[in-house]
Amino acid sequence: GTDIINIKGGTISNNSALENHGGAFLVTKGNVEIGPVLIKENTSKYGGAIYCSGNPHATIKLIGGEIINNTSMSINGGIFIGNNCTYTYISGIVSGNTPTNEYETN
């Protein structure tokens, strides 16, 4: 079957993965649906809030909520979308992240 994780409600904040990926989440397989939820002030080496690179494949769907004020030490403070990951934006806010506000497909 297909793994589905629904993240709804609450706040995910002040987490860190300074030597790794995804301050709040590291997604490598399955389907992750996010929203509404507040993801803020997380820090990591890559993908300050969320890092997705499928092994073999992963999906992320943003359905409301906010991904704000997260920091990456390298690239993509908000959402990093790597190989074998599909990102779908339905609604929500991705803003104020450093070094970039939006996700990046790599």
Structural write-up:
Strands 1, 2, 5, 6, 9 and 12 form a six-stranded parallel β-sheet that branches. The protein has a four-stranded parallel β-sheet with strand order 4-8-11-13, with no helix packed on it. A three-stranded parallel β-sheet has the order 3-7-10, with no helix packed on it. The chain is built from no helices and 13 strands. The protein has strands at 4-7, 11-13, 16-21, 25-27, 30-34, 38-40, 43-46, 50-52, 58-68, 71-75, 79-81, 85-95, 104-105. It is globular. With 106 residues, it is mostly beta strands.
| Helix-strand string | EEEEEEEEEEEEE
Q: Mind telling me the C-alpha Rg?
A: 12 Å
Flag low-confidence runs.
Answer: none
Number of helices: 0
Shape: globular
What is the tally of beta strands?
A: 13
* Helix content percent band: under 10%
